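hiii, so i know i said id send this last week but things got crazy w the move. better late than never?? heres the sequnce for the chain we talked about at the cafe, plus the structure i predicted for it. fair warning i was half asleep when i ran it
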Amino acid sequence: VQLQAYGGGLVQAGGSLRLSCAASGRTSSSDAMGWFRQYPGKEREFVATISGSGDTTFYAASVRGRFTISRDNAKNAVYLQMNSLKPEDTAVYYCASRNGVASVARLAYHYWGQGTLVTVSS
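okay and structure toks below
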């Protein structure tokens, strides 16, 4: 499975961005997908996850109510709509997939994209 994340960029605080992640290879609509982010010198942290069917989602407390994860299985894609962005959301964002249920655990994911940088200016 190959994952390609894109859509990052520079945005002012309070603005919005939509990240996309395209999956290719031996993908399955039952695979859970997730978004994680990483600050310089820190471990990658959980942001959001969605089940294969899209029925189940979980969010980190820091983004709940501002970010929305969704997926389009026909396009093998997952999205992260980020609203009301804050400077502390500045990080490299990664998409990931796993053969199983949605999980908030970084180590549960089998495949990772290359990351896309989101910068929020104050």
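btw Residues 1 and 60 are 25 Å apart (CA to CA). thought thatd interest u
miss u guys!!
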